[in-house]
TrEMBL record:
InterPro entries with a match to the protein in the record: EF-4 (IPR006297), EFG_III/V (IPR035647), EFG_V-like (IPR000640), EFTu-like_2 (IPR004161), G_TR_CS (IPR031157), LepA_C_sf (IPR038363), LepA_CTD (IPR013842), LepA_IV (IPR035654)
Protein name in the entry: Elongation factor 4
Catalytic reaction equation(s): GTP + H2O = GDP + phosphate + H(+)
Tr-type G domain sequence ranges: 4-185
Role, per record: Required for accurate and efficient protein synthesis under certain stress conditions. May act as a fidelity factor of the translation reaction, by catalyzing a one-codon backward translocation of tRNAs on improperly translocated ribosomes. Back-translocation proceeds from a post-translocation (POST) complex to a pre-translocation (PRE) complex, thus giving elongation factor G a second chance to translocate the tRNAs correctly. Binds to ribosomes in a GTP-dependent manner.
Originating species: Brevibacterium rongguiense
GO cellular-component term (any): plasma membrane
Source lineage: Bacteria, Bacillati, Actinomycetota, Actinomycetes, Micrococcales
């Protein structure tokens, strides 16, 4: 297709404002998905995306659309909206010339509407404002058109009004994309340059690499080269997703599609890399992506120690799919061999873990998440701590913790509650603006450690779900932090150590000891649980001894009940972990490490 007839666009919005649903209608209206095959959130392929109703991976689909008798090819890239996945959004944006900025007409602008808009502006994208869900009785398109127009500097009439659910107004959106989005520009005669914006490992086809061609042309059977490593591969298949993979004779300037080289090693196809022809290679790489920086670290350990090699293999494969995931081997006294992994946030952690368990059949324990601390010792030596159990015991001069610039958007009636919450999380107020009469933007700087745990849940519950949150790195600052250890029967359990603010250490110790007391079943002997800062004990609980014979509980009872109990006990055994001489159920780890 000639570049003049191509439009590359994405859809950005706050989570749940209806991107995937609007994408569904476009697939239907352009006829690429037959009515019979249609199902909701068509592009959310992963089970976990479908169950949670959220988009994790970006998706690229090619759709035909005719305007004034000219046949255009629209490449749509659906993006995730959650704050943890901003890096996916920024990768998608770099492959597009235009974007739909979608706003729920019953909700108005939210924190990620702003964050995504700024990303789009940074990438010089043409922005088409769209109010969605106009079919809802609670929709107030007039009101929010004013808000949206005020934000991006257009007229309220310029905001399209659509319903992704009913399909109303969706054709007008497609027409507008053709009319307003610039077509891609590139040098067709130059050596090929294509940007990798996603890579997926497929059990049958090996590595599938998604690219956007900037210059030149890529064709099947050619030898291609990865510019960053110089590695060459033969192109076995090249094609477009529409939305099923469809082989083509090649991809030219501005086109978006996939490549298959038969490579099985997932590290050879890095997101952000430039693909070129091996015979006539380009010299200048395309501006890659900023490498996403992990913000939260946690240890992942197989419950069954012999799964360690399988876990490493699974992480290697996931890494290809997820540029933001980092990991290195870790050994824990309590949990054995595993990996210290870095994530963008807690949702990212949860999702990686869930994918490892589901897609690779692993049973895992994850330890308490930790941010990255910069520690300076009295002797001026400096190092990073991402694992509380590596926190130094010697003379510390200073500890610095990451802080984030936080934006909360809330209806004005909850301003007091939000301020109180932010203050309790060591937040410092930086500013406050009324976006409209009843919508307020609050800006704080806050330690990341306070945000990653349960800030979002608390924010939601204190504002009846109406507030929204976004944050970005803002460097680091010194803080008065201590390491709290948890001892079971006198042995420190490295998996439960945490670095916390001194003012909160006591509360943390009491809380953890109390939780563990309820979570760890009685043993054959008495088990003291202690929380300590260094050698100072700050909290203590005791699990009293008990005979473990569960069958004695139902003597004389019916056999099937006994058998059930036995089976339950067996099932339980599998999920037990020995910590020193104490048996700890996996659930105790998970429950103790989750906040409530
Ligand atoms: P995304 O997170 O932006 O991809 O949002 P989804 O497309 O997954 O939609 C979130 C929720 O809003 C789902 O329950 C959809 O059914 C619903 N939804 C999306 N678009 C519309 C719409 O136009 N009208 C109505 N009434 N509901 C919608
Ligand atoms: Mg979605």
């Amino acid at each position: 297709t000639a570049p003049e007839l191509i439009r590359n666009f994405c859809i950005i919005a706050h989570i749940d404002h209806g991107k995937s649903t609007l994408a569904d209608r476009m697939l239907q209206i352009t006829g690429v998905v037959e009515p019979r095959a249609m199902r909701a959130q068509y592009l959310d392929r992963m089970d976990i995306e479908r169950e949670r109703g959220i988009t994790i991976k970006s998706q690229a689909v090619r759709m035909p659309w005719e305007v004034d008798g000219r046949a255009y090819a629209l490449n749509m890239i659906d993006t995730p909206g959650h704050v943890d996945f901003t890096y996916e959004v920024s990768r998608s944006l770099a492959a597009c010339e235009g974007t739909l900025l979608l706003v729920d007409a019953a909700q108005g602008i939210e924190a990620q509407t702003l964050a995504n808009l700024y990303l789009a502006l940074e990438n010089d994208l043409t922005i088409i404002p769209v109010l969605n869900k106009i079919d809802l009785p609670a929709a107030q398109p007039e009101k929010y058109a004013e808000e949206l127009a005020g934000l991006i500097g257009c007229e309220p009439e310029d905001c399209l009004r659509v319903s992704g659910k009913t399909g109303e107004g969706v054709e007008a959106v497609l027409d507008r994309i053709v009319a307003e989005t610039p077509h891609p520009v590139g040098d067709a005669d130059a050596p090929a340059r294509a940007m990798i914006f996603d890579s997926v490992y497929d059990t049958y086809r090996g590595v599938v690499t998604y690219v956007r061609v900037v210059d030149g042309k890529l064709a099947p059977r050619e030898k291609i080269e990865m510019l960053s490593t110089g590695a060459t591969h033969e192109l076995l298949e090249i094609g477009v997703s529409s939305p099923e993979p469809t082989p083509s004779k090649g991809l030219g300037v501005g086109e978006v599609g996939y490549l298959i080289t038969g490579v099985k090693d997932v590290r050879q196809s890095r997101v952000g890399d430039t693909v070129t022809n091996a015979k006539k290679p380009a010299t200048q790489a395309l501006g890659g992506y900023r490498d996403p920086k992990p913000m939260v670290f946690s240890g992942l350990f197989p419950i069954d120690g012999s799964d360690y090699p399988a876990l490493r293999d699974a992480l290697d494969k996931l890494k290809l799919n997820d540029a933001a995931l980092v990991y290195e081997p870790e050994t824990s006294a309590a949990l054995g061999f595993g990996f210290r992994c870095g994530f963008l946030g807690l949702l990212h952690l949860e999702i990686v873990r869930e994918r490892l368990e589901r897609e690779f059949g692993l049973d895992l324990i994850s330890t308490a998440p930790s941010v990255v601390y910069q520690v300076t010792m009295e002797d001026r030596s400096e190092f990073e701590v991402t694992n509380p159990s590596e926190y130094p015991a010697g003379k510390i001069r200073e500890v610095r913790e990451p802080i984030v610039r936080t934006t909360v958007l809330t209806p004005s009636e909850y301003v007091g509650a939000v301020m109180e919450l932010c203050q309790s999380k060591r937040g410092q107020m930086k500013g406050m603006d009324y976006l409209s009469e009843d919508r307020v933007e609050l800006r704080y700087t806050m330690p990341l450690a306070e945000i990653v745990f349960d800030f979002f849940d608390q924010l939601k519950s204190k504002t009846k779900g109406y507030a929204s949150l976004d944050y970005e790195n803002d460097g680091e600052q010194a803080a008065d932090l201590v390491k709290v250890d948890i001892l079971l029967h006198g042995d420190p359990v490295d998996a439960f150590s945490a670095i916390v603010h001194r003012d909160k250490a006591y509360a943390y110790g009491v809380m953890m000891a109390g939780k563990l007391k309820d979570l760890i079943p009685r043993q054959q002997f008495e088990v003291p649980i202690q929380a300590a800062i260094g050698s100072r004990i700050i909290a203590r609980e005791t699990i009293r001894a008990m005979r473990k014979d569960v069958l004695s509980k139902c003597y004389g009872g019916d056999i099937s009940r006994k058998r059930k109990l036995l089976e339950k006990q067996k099932e339980g055994k599998k999920r037990m972990k020995m910590v020193g001489s104490v048996e700890v159920p996996q659930e105790a780890f998970i429950a103790a490490l989750s906040s409530d």
